[in-house]
Design brief:
This protein has eleven helices and two strands, in the order H-H-E-E-H-H-H-H-H-H-H-H-H. The protein is mainly α. Keywords: Membrane, Transmembrane, Transmembrane helix.
């Protein structure tokens, strides 16, 4: 196991990326444990951080850590390997704190424990998935192919670069179509596995997606197919995803409209 780690992570220069991912996951899990205990009002646990009447969200600390880790990563020379890893750890901790409250940034409102707050978990899952693929050596759109055959003729290199540029343009177009069809995960993972983009671009769009609104007339055959697929396949997957999210991060309020007027549930009420 140690030999595998050394060959696949250390020798390939991915140790800072591994440190980032490990720090990100550990910080996210500890943060969610912390906020769930605060929400449960456990006596012996910490309380929310307040500055007077202002609740200090943990994304504020996350921004500071990302700034320190990011600037440190650029400022530290490459031959200080341990310090580069440390900078990656700090940046990963900050990124986890920020993305854990991604929904607050997106909605500019304290929606942490509401239905909208699940956007934070989606952002965290996407970040972990993308970083994990990079750590495994998967490159978006087969990026490493441009540098292959370094000793080949100049004409061969020109053809290679032109072929890659064409495939990149096609894949980017398919990715845009897939995302417009409302298939976020397929579009993002398709950046690393282009075959998924072909499937996502060909299959019917999700109801309510921009593609569906622009191209599917209500009551049309494609619109009915989209509704059928959503009810038969998508909804069970969404229920499973919500179960996983709530198992990891705690239950979100299903009916935020029932809250007292002018008040939202947030990290300040954990």
């Amino acid at each position: 196991m140690i030999d595998f780690f050394h060959r696949r992570i250390v020798e390939t220069g991915r140790l800072p990326l591994f440190a980032f991912l490990a720090a990100f996951i550990v910080t996210f899990v500890l943060t969610r444990v912390n906020v769930r205990l605060i929400r449960a009002n456990v006596r012996w646990w910490f309380k929310n951080v307040q500055a007077g009447e202002v609740h200090i969200h943990h994304m504020v600390l996350g921004v500071v850590l990302m700034l320190v880790g990011g600037v440190g990563g650029f400022a530290i020379p490459d031959f200080f390997g341990a310090l580069n890893v440390a900078a990656a750890v700090v940046f990963g901790m900050g990124a986890a704190l920020v993305l854990d409250e991604f929904a607050l940034i997106l909605h500019l409102s304290d929606v942490y424990w509401t239905e909208k707050g699940r956007a934070s978990l989606d952002a965290v899952f996407v970040a972990v998935a993308m970083t994990g693929l990079l750590l495994l050596g998967v490159r978006p759109f087969g990026f490493e192919g441009v540098e292959s055959d370094p000793g080949g003729a100049q004409l061969s290199r020109v053809v290679l670069i032109a072929t890659y540029a064409l495939s990149l343009a096609i894949n980017l177009g398919l990715a845009v179509v897939t995302l417009l069809k409302g298939k976020i995960w397929t579009g993002l993972l398709g950046l690393f596995v282009p075959a998924l983009l072909i499937v996502g671009a060909i299959r019917v769009a999700r109801p309510g997606s921009p593609w569906s609104r622009w191209r599917y007339r209500p009551g049309s055959r494609k619109y009915r197919r989209a509704l059928h697929r959503e009810a038969r396949f998508r909804r069970p997957l969404i229920r499973g995803k919500i179960w996983v999210q709530e198992f990891i991060a705690g239950r979100h309020e299903r009916a935020p409209a029932e809250l007292p007027p002018g008040r939202e549930t947030g990290p300040g009420e954990r």
